[in-house]
Model the fold of this input.
Amino acid sequence: MRLARLAAGGLLAAVLAGCASAPGPRRAPPPVPDQMPELAAFSAHLNGQQAVPTNDSRAQGELVAVLNRNTGLLRWKLTFSGLSGPVRGGSFHSPGMSGEIAPPVVSLGRTVQSPSEGRAMLTARQRADLLTGQWYVNLPTARYPDGELRGPLIEQRR
Done:
């Protein structure tokens, strides 16, 4: 009986020691699948040298924008200074690359002042063109009816 107790005690000690020992090698968690971020950020530097035709305006402007890829909501903030007069019908244009003229696709609003903010819902096609670098912003004035300031929207990737 005493031998049985010793054997049982030894077995219990071995089982407990096994439970307390370090676990075997852990496997790394599975990789997270690559996903496009929900938000895409854009910026544009506006000047007369990017207008078509180019001009000698010393005005400058900046635009920052955020696109929600899922909903199509585009939000933007625009600042500019030094224009020869009030903006007349500022808008986003697409599809158009540098040096090309494209039709307006989204208006910046009835009156465009600096600073200004806006938002618009984009179609799937407009989103695709924006995400492939085919959008620019154009600010025409009376002196420069084709655009005093222009700049391409460039996606800011991390």
